[in-house]
Amino acid sequence: METEFKEFHELLNENLESYEGSYEKIVDYGPELFKLLTKILDQKKINPEIRLKVSAAISYFVIPYDIIPEEIYGPDGYIDDIFICAYVIGDITNDLGYGVLEGLWDSDENLYDVVEECYEKSSSILGDKTDEILKYVGLDYLFEKE
To answer: CA-CA distances (angstroms) from residue 66 to 69, 82, 95, 134?
Structure first.
């Protein structure tokens, strides 16, 4: 018997394809944002700080009991994961620029628009929990830089 292993973003797609909830628009971007982060991490010439930020966002996506766990909240539990992805992608564009990231982006949609929409909507939904999420992954120091 041959076992087929799927990539995590493929499993996310399968889990979310039938979701029709209140946050469907941004939750649907989850697998694509996750895949983009993994492609960024695959780049050989990425500075260590960017590599750590991207690793933190990827890790947050795969841990089972984060601030809003999927096991309890279902697909709505991905909103915090999408927030951290959009936050990190938005932050690293200061160093890399959207042009570099667009080259790694598999979607036909404009990356800048997707990141902005996901960040605005997810942070609005999460409210004060955004600080807790950033602290959870160790990226709360980024607020101090702003």
So the answer is: 5, 12, 28, 11
